[in-house]
Structures are given as C-alpha cells and as structure tokens.
Amino acid sequence: MSVIGIDFGNEGCYVAAARSGGIETLANDYSLRATPSFVAFDGKKRIIGVAAKNQQVTNMKNTVGGFKRLLGRKFNDPHVQHELKSIPARVESRNDGSIGIKVNYLNEDQHFSPEQLTAMLFTKLKETSAAAMQTQVNDCVITCPVFFTNAERQALLDAAQIAGLNVLRLMNETTATALAYGFYKNDLFEEKPRNVIFVDFGHSALQVSACVFTKGKLKMLASSWDQIGGRDIDLALADYFTTEFLERYKINAKTNARANLRLLTEIEKLKKQMSANSTKLPLNIECFLDDVDVSSSMQRSQMEELCAPVLQRVEQTFKKLLVESKLSLDDIHSVEIVGGSTRIPSVKQLIEQVFNKPASTTLNQDEAVSRGAALQCAIMSPAVRVREFGVTDIQNYAVKVLWEGDGTSSNGEVEIFPQFHPSPFSRLVTIARKSPFVASIVYGQQVPYPDQTIGTWKIKDVKPTERGESQDVKLKVRINQNGIVLISSAVLVDRKEQEEAAAASEQAAADDKNAGEQAGPNASEQAEAQPEAYFENEDDNNTSTASSPGGQGWAQRVKGWFGSGNDKTKKKTKKDIELPMEPITHGFEPTVLTSYAQQEAKMIGNDQKETERIDAKNALEEFVYDMRNKLQGGPLERYVVESERESIVAQLNDLENWLYEDGEDCDRETYTNRLTALLQKTDPIKLRAHDYEQCPAVFEELKNSIAVARQAVAEFRKGVPKYDHLTETEFINIAETADKAQKWLDSNLSKFTQSSRTADSPVTLQALRHEVHSLNTCVNSVITRAKPKPAAKTTTPPKDAAEQNGSDPTATGDKMDVDNNGQNVGGNTPSDAAMDVE
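The line above is the sequence of Heat shock 70 kDa protein 4 isoform X2; the predicted structure tokens follow.
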C-alpha cells in the first residue's frame, strides 16, 4: 500500500506519492501532472479531469468546475452568489438551503452537492494514483487553504470519505509548502533558526505565511490571506476586451456564456505570454459571436494598469503578514513563491518591495504543495519509513467557548485559543454546574463564513452533589490535526465525602487548599472561593497536591496537634465520570454520508460498465474498418475466394451502418456477440495467410537442420576428435532421423508449393515446426554432450607427515581462520580447528 499527497486546487489538482526513491509527482491518463478540477456528465458516463475540461465549451450545462469554493456553504451565502457568476452550470437551492448542482445524468436531471462533486474528483485521482503505482491507494494527506473554516474543512473530509480515502491529515497549503522546503534542507538549520516567508498565489486565492525552521522541525508563525487570484486578473482583462469588442464589433460577450468562456480561455493564454514578454501581443478569436472574428492586442504595462486594484490587495496582504508575524525585515531569510500567479513580474516586484528580499524560486511552483503533503503522509503512515520531521501548525482564527447560565449565574465565555495558537492542541475548560447545559464554540473574530458558530454541544447527565452543590465539569476543547475545533470530551468530577481517622485530616486539609489554588486565572484570590469556570492546558498537571504542614491553616495545625486518634473527619474523594454529549456541528449526518458513499460506489460501477460497453463498441468498429481494408486490396485478399470475400465485405458494410443507426447504444454483450460471429468467419482466413507467409522460412530452417545432422554424421565417420566420446549407435540414429525428415520435407514441400492460396495450407505451421524441433532435439542431445573429465590420481600421504612438517600433533578437527601473525581470528581454540593461513 502506498501513500499520496493531494493538492486540491480550484483550477487543478496535483498528486504526489512517497516511493522508495523519494517523492514523485504522478501523471494522469493524459500523461499530464495537472488534473483539472472539472466534472462533466455525458449520457450514461461521468467524465472527470482533462476530458471534462476539454468539453467545457461544448457541454457547458453539464460540466462543472470551481466547486471547491462552494464546499460547506449554503445557497444564500453571499460568497456563493458571487461564485455562481463564474459557474455556467445550473445551481439551485435545495429544501434544506444547501447547494444543488443540476446536471443531466443517466438521461434524467439529478442534483449533486459540491461535496459529491469533490468526491468524484477524488475518485479519479485515486484511480490515477493506483494505475501509476500499480497498487491500492487509501492513505492520503489533502491540502486546503489556510483560511478554510471548520465547515469547509469538514466538508472536505466528508468528500474524501465518500470517495473511500483515509485522510491522515488536512494540511494547510502553505504548511505543506514549508515542509517541502525544509525537509531536504535540514542541515542548514543547525546554526540558528531560519525565518522564511511563503507566498502562494494561485487561481483563486492568495496566501502568505511566515515559518521558522530549526533542525528537525518547523513552526508556523502567522498567516495572512485574501481571496483573490489569477482569475481576478483574467476577469479584469475580460471586462476590458468586452468593452472594446462592443465598441468595435457591436457584440457583447457577456450576453453569451459560451463566448465569454472562450474569451476567458484566450485571455489566460495571453496573460501567460505577457508574463514572459513585455512587447505587445495579439489576441485573435475566430467566429467569436454571431460568426464575427475579433482581434485585439495588449502589452504587459497595460495589463498591470488594468489589474492595479488586484495588485494593491496583494501588497496589503504582504504588509499584513509583517504585522501579524512580528518579524522585522532583517529577521527574514528568504521569500519562497509557489502558485501559477507568482510568475507575473509585477507580483515578484511587490515581494521585493515589501519584504526587501527577491522572490526565490527554489521550489517547484506547481508541485511543491502536493510534494509537501506526500511527505507529511509518509511521516504519519506506518506503511512508509521516513526520517521524522516535526510540524507545528497554527489556528488562524481566535476561538471562544460559550456556555449558558444555570439560573444562579449568567452566561459565560472565555477565549480558549487566541489567533495563531499552535495546532494540534488541547485545553480543558472547567465549569461548575448542577444540571445539563449547552456549550458552544464560536470564532472570536471575523471569518470568511457567514456563521460564526463552530458548533454546539449539549452536555448531559450533569448532577449536583449530595448536598445540592455544583460540580465541576471539565470540557476538553481540541484543535485536531485537521485544523477542526471541537469539544472532544466532557468529564464530571464527582466529589464525595467519607469519614476516616483524624490522622488523615492533615492531608484532607492540604487537598482542600490546593483545590482552591488550582482554579487558574479566572479564579478568586481567596482559596475558599470556587470559580464558575477556568481553563488549563491538557498536559498541565494542576491537580497535584502537597502534604507539607506549612500549607495548612492555623486551625488545622492546632487540631492536628491536640486531636485524638479516634477523631473522625470528612475526606473528599473524586471520580471522573465521562458525560454523554450531543454535538450539533457542520457536516453531513452519518446516514446521509453513508447514502452518498453508496451512491458514489454505484456510479463507479456504472462508469466501469459504460467503459466496457464503449470499449466493446470501439473494438467492433475498429475490426470492421481493419478487416475491410485487408480484404479489399490488402494482405488477405489473395487468401480468400472472391465470392467469400464479397460476402464478408457486404456483412462488414451492413455492420458499419448498424453501428451508426440501431447499434449506436447497445449493451456490451451485443457488440461482443457480433464481433465473435465475424471472427468465426475471418479467423480461418487470417490463419491461412499466416501459414502461407511463415511456412517457407520454416521449410528452409528444416533444410538447414538436415544439413547439420548429416555433417555431424560425416565428421564422426572421419574420426573427428570432438566426437571420440560418442558411439556409433547414436550417429546411426541421427542419420536415420535426418533421412526420415528429408523424405517428409520432399513430400510436403511439393504439396505446399502446388497448393492454391485460397485453400488451407496442406502443411500447417505447427506441424512443420514440430518436425524441425524433433530433428534438432535428436541431433543436439548427442553432439552437444561434453566429454567426461579424466579421473583424478590419488596419493597416500606418509603416516608421520604431520610430524615431518613440524605441525602440532594435537591440532586436529575443523579448520580455524588466523591472521598473518598467527593469532586466532575465528574465536575457536586450536583443539577445535586446523589452520587456514591468510
């Protein structure tokens, strides 16, 4: 099993895999590394990736792209309404307010959510990876923008689950880029930490992050972002050309979705050319609208003027990062750039202007994110062995915990995680409660999502003490490895009192005092005043108690001096009880998720069935064209009588017409049966032609084999030394076998040469090869036999040979290795071995 990293982009995806030779970016079925993020529906089949984007113009209503920006959102979301302006597909609101994308699939209108479309794309990437690596792929790391909220991250996880992927981690794109940079530069961080800025300017988003590297680990410091990208530059240029064409040609591209899409496609090409050339470049589109050909031109300086608002936002994002990261310009080692839009010269100029460092292109600008994700997957997966490298990410939004009052106290809140807090991380929030209550997690600042609420948890089975007092409920709030904030558990600290000997009263008093001291920053300064709520880090051991008498009050100390051993006191004991919770968070219900997964599996089966049907149809169509060409003026024409040839050709013509009429949409079995019927008529002709074409060469081979056999017999009879070890009987057998083969050859060769080529060959190729093989086996088994080796002469050594050689008569048994100094190197004693001297 292999592990992969997926860079899921708004315009395209990259997949990298961890292999024994390192990280490799995988190519798709078009031998391209980039797979467009497009899904199309065409009759009975889904088309995903390159093929889907290629038919975007011809099948606009059923081709969907840009669904990454719709994940986890409702239809009425202002962000969604803005995105729909650039999506030509039909998008509607479902009964629950979610997004439904309407397409024609299986000859009926169907609605799919953005999460389902993402799952379809992931299915394609999974199949591409499995084909490239020749093994099953399940474990993966998927990247997402740093500004993704809980709802969007959960939607991405749901999509991966629908596709059958096991996501080890959702990773921020800039963090993956940092890992790809730092993993192979580990030796450079030994002297001092290195601060590096990473700029990711892609199709629809700009992300800038600061990271500090030390040996064996990286830590993200801060991030800034803006939801602008290369497409915003395309739209600015499209507005310019639309206005120009309206004035010059009296046509408005915005009134026609297909024309507008063609314009954006040509503008993207022009933009890439202007990034490499400062001269004026042409723009030409034939039959643009109403059969009108349009043309224009633009140069880089003009593009920069039109895109000035976009570039201003880019500059503001850069400056914001400097403020958020609290880094000075001297602290920054370098600025690494990734993403297609960073190739624009004006963006590179802004980087140097703001950070006082030139843009560095150390990383592959297209593949760095996927490579970093693959590295992270390899580090986390037990299936791959790789050097450890620590990654500490950050929570990009401040997070608060809210809880409702219980009648005796008002609602409460606490900021549990400030902005840019390390992630993953857990903290405990302790709340005093007598009854079940509701706790919520919300963002503590403005986020690019209409709902600030992350989730709500109903904490159940909370009860007061036997005296009717409040009990502590500890909520564990966690930022997990996917950047999702949640309440992972709720625990009731059940405290009870038990009578015991007064000798234990000192420890009980110490426990009481320390219980008051552990309340944390929200507690009262007086030990006896219990706070309503406080929080602590999960790993902090704040519940430890001390037994030193100095920590006791005066009354407790006096009581300890004068109290009798029979005095009874109350000792408080506590037990943690796991509380049930009812979460209300973003994402699909388990039943809905299961239904979507089953639907995806069914569609995969339909795709496979349709692929097999189309392959069978194509095989039949290809056979019709190929066989007809071979029978009419081709290599098979001379091997079939005219009447039979005309009959087969007529059948092929009828079959061709049937394929484009009634046979346009038949099942696989129908095509297979018709092909089988044709093969029954044409295979004998092909076999006949094969025999007539191949037999002459094999006849010559048989002649040569007979000549070799007779030459060997002649040499034996002349007494050639190499055959001295062979017998007369063996060569008599060779001579007889050669004579028999010669008679068979003379008889069948004449039949073969006189036979009509329209009739089956009197000698099959198989029979001819068998005759050659039999003769060669008979001859070679004799003449290739090696001469036996002469027997070795043996001599008996004298009995006192050991004494004459001066050796130790006690050194008997197995051998022992020694070095040149005569020292034992094998570890055996002389009694165990004789010597081999090096």
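Note on the example: The two ends are 49 Å apart (CA to CA). The domain at 230-312 is CATH 3.90.640.10 (Actin; Chain A, domain 4).
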